[in-house]
Structures are given as C-alpha cells and as structure tokens.
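=== RUN LOG ===
request id: a7f3
mode: sequence -> structure
chains: 1
length: 311
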Amino acid sequence: MRTVVFGYHNVGYVCLRQLLQQGHEVAALVTHSDDPEENVWFKSVAELAHEHAVPVFTPDNPNVPEFVNAIGELHPDIVFSFYYRHMLKRPLLELAPLGALNMHGSYLPKYRGRCPVNWVLVNGEASTGVTLHYMVEKPDAGDIVAQRKVPIAFDDTAPSLYAKMTQAAETLFTETLPILAAGTAPRIPQDHSQATYYGGRRPADGCFSWDDSAVNIYNLVRAVTHPYPGAFADFGTGRLFVWWCEPQDGPPDAGGKPGTVTAVTSSGPLVATADGQLLLLSLQVDDGPILDGREFAAAYALCPGDSLLSV
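=== RESULT ===
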C-alpha cells in the first residue's frame, strides 16, 4: 500500500512507525514546523521520516492547488491524517482511491474538533477514545472504520491521558491496517444527532474563579497543567498558577468564603471553593519559581482566614 501521511505529535509518530514497520510505502510525510512559542514535549514525526528517507514537507497551507497537484503526482493509494492540525479540503481528500482517513482523539461523534484530550478532562468525563474515520470537509464527521475506548482515571492529566490515547491509537491502527490495505474497511455512519463539537483552547482559557466547585477547578488544573500553560486565578495584582491540587472531602460549608484559606496543613494550604475545599500542592505566582504547597504557604505567611484574592 502506498500512502501519503499528514501527521504530527505522538499519535502521528506511532502510526507512521507502524506503517513503516509493516512494510507499507510512505511516499511523503506532510507535517508542521514546530512553533518556537509552543512547548514541544512530543516526539518528532519529521525525525522518524528522515530516519527512513521519507520526504518531508511543511506547507503553511496544504490545500493550495500547487501542493495538491504535487501530492497527486505521488499517486497514493490512501491518505492518512494523524493529529495534523490543518483541515484537508476536498481536492486532497479525493486524491487516493482507497480514501482519506483520520485518527481522531475522541470516541466520535462526541468531542469533534480541537483539543479533545483537554476538553474531556475539563468536563470531568470518565472515558474517551480514539476513532479512525474517513475524512469529509466537515470536521470529524465522516464514516467510522473502527474505535477503541479509553478509560479516564480521576488523577489523569493531559499528558497521562495522551499516553493512554497514543497506545490505543497505535493498537487500533495496527489492527485495521490489513483491511485498509485490502480495501475492505467498513464505513459506519456516525449518529450526527449525538455529536458535540469543541474549539481550540488558548492560555487565557486557564483562568478560573474560586466561586466554582472544587471538582471543576481540579478538572481544569489537570487538563492544562504542565506541559500546557496552566490554570490560574487572580492573586492580588498578579496571577496564581495552580499546577496541582486535590479536592477534599467534607461538608459543603466547611470552607467559608471562596478563595479563603481555611487551614494550613503540612502539605499546603486548604482553600475554600463554592462547594468545598482544595488542597494546593504545586503553585507559582506570575513567572516566579514553582513552589510546593508548604513552601508557598510559608513564603506568603498564610494563615486561616487569609484571602488569596487580596494577598
């Protein structure tokens, strides 16, 4: 099977690796140049392609006619997209006789769109999945080839969930490669009435209020903790980044006014939220050093009754 791969990130890496290991011909890799302002913590599909003498392209827009024609001249049997960030339009999608397929990081039709791993954590989901589907011009709406569910633990963060998703994507892709190459892959229509769609996230979307629930704040923290830009709240005239915390059991009224320190433990301060308390375990004020909870409480001489909004 001859293919052109549009790929990026760890899922792109493992799926490209499977194609190469199983002896399929990869005529070209189309990927992104790394953004110097992005924390690049994932593996490089470009490096893997270079190791196997696969030509690499990094167009700003893969849909311009000149680039579409260049890909067409490679005569792929099938086109794959693995965590590639640009939408591919109809001329690219119609190049290959076996179709164009995408590996999406959710259990479709739920969580179509961008950043599904972060969004499922923000929303406190108990499971997600990976889906291999045919691409159409509407994002993540094409017929499904196969899916695999991924459970979400309460202490999963975006990196730990990404690791689970990457393994699930590699397993799913490995299992489906034979039927894809044979041209016998199924086409299972999605139930569009059940679809949900989410857009991209910006660093500013990490802002939270102590007036929210303890679990909601915790879910945001674990969704955008390192290597993402982080969850933060107002802290006097600055920002308090909470890199890790734990919601605490107890009566809803145990904490007092949201944002108030209710106790200082050996691990860090307990802070009131709308419905309980959070134990703050890893923190940073603006661009200062990252402190554990005990160090933070000592640095700001925190006592019960102090408000983090006015420190």
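=== NOTES ===
The CA atoms of residues 22 and 174 lie 9 Å apart.
DSSP finds eight helices and 15 strands in the chain.
=== END ===
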